[in-house]
Amino acid sequence: RTHALRKRLVGKVCAVKVQRSERNDAEPFRGTGANKGRHPQPRREGRAKVEAEVRSGGQGAGDLEEQELGESGVKVAPIGIGAWSWGDALYWSSDGWSDEKEGLARGALQAYLELCPEDPWIDTAEVYGGIGGESERIIGRFLRDSVSTDAGGKPTSTSRPKVATKFAALPWRYSKGSVVDACRSSLARCKTESCDLYQLHWPGLWFNDQYVEGLEEVVKQGLAKSVGVSNYSDKRLQEAHSKLKARGVPLASNQVHYNLLYRLPETNGVLEKCQELGVTLVAYSPLAQGVLSGKYDEKNLPTGPRARIYNESFMRKARPLIELMREIGENHGGKSNAQVALNWLLCNPLVTVIPGAKNRQQVEDLMGAIGWELEEGEVIELRKAALAVPPVQGFPAEDL
């Protein structure tokens, strides 16, 4: 895929500003080959065939096409792994975290590194798994154990993902030093000297100028290779970008809630602003917290607090979309609902995705979203079906 083709496709992304009305069936991006060759194409038959395909050439590891985060110089795979659920004892399950779940998460990371040999990355935050940063601690244990040593105990080689984490804009944090201190604490928990992407998790009620200055400082001190924001509106994104640019630091990314069922970035100006500024949009909850995977329905709701959001009424309204995704997946050789949902987002070259993964099987499924592409008509058809499902409440900070 040529650079010129990519530029033409990016231009299409924001050519049509999608409105909240029935004009939503005009799509802000189309399938024109954006995914072909970006990554290996794991299928659904299990680990053996997935690994064999990656090793065999053809649509294998050599075809992986990394993506630069903004103009930062940091490159990542189009699919990262989101570690929001790792260490969580409240939101993501009703029975807490356990050693068994940590073992499954370790298997998920190992599978990801096997299937994504170039620029793998994992996204976490200091508040994931609780204020104490348990998700970061879990990643730290995984990274520590990934180091190979020689007979003398010296490190020889590593198989490690790039790490992205986030600063919580808590009310008692009021200076750029707060950002630097929090970053150092996150790095200690992750057992790494620097991270590849450090982000402001949400805009604060106050002190946002100081937080942006803190981003500059973590880059200057070598604590982060690139910096970004999360849950930022188009206006706040512009302000952060301008302040950092004046200091010679590129704003790499804006991580926002974005999926087939939650398309607010298309209508609130965020997607358009990312295109204008050359900022990568990182889509979190790209599977709508598992709903778009097709494993839930009216009689089988998600566990924990998610059941109050994606309740019986919601799942009933979402059923036609889920069934359409299943049909489209079958037309593409048996692709899963999760693969269809991620492919829909990755048709837009501005977007990278960070789906959560709790075990090896989920990772094998997720990685099958690359190497094929939805047709333009299918992109439109999916959007129209999604319009019938009322959107859920997003993160309130998006409107700050």
Describe the protein.
The chain is α/β, with parallel strands linked by helices and 400 residues long. 38% of the residues lie in helices and 11% in strands. It is built from 14 helices and 12 strands. The strands form 3 sheets. An 8-stranded parallel sheet has the order 3-4-7-8-9-10-11-12. It has a two-stranded antiparallel ribbon with strand order 1-2.
Label the structural class.
Answer: alpha/beta
> Residue share in helices?
25-40%
Give the strand tally. Answer: 12
Number of helices: 14
Portion of residues in beta strands equals: 5-15%
- What is the element string, with H for helices and E for strands? HHEEEHEHEEEHEHEHEHHEHHHEHH
Distance between the termini: 39 Å
Mean pLDDT: 85
Low-confidence segments: 1-27, 30-34, 36-64
How are the strands of the biggest sheet laid out side by side?
3-4-7-8-9-10-11-12
Radius of gyration: 20 Å
Identify the overall geometry: globular
Largest sheet: 8 strands, parallel
Could you give a short description of this structure?
The protein has 14 helices and 12 strands. With 400 residues, it is of the alpha/beta class.
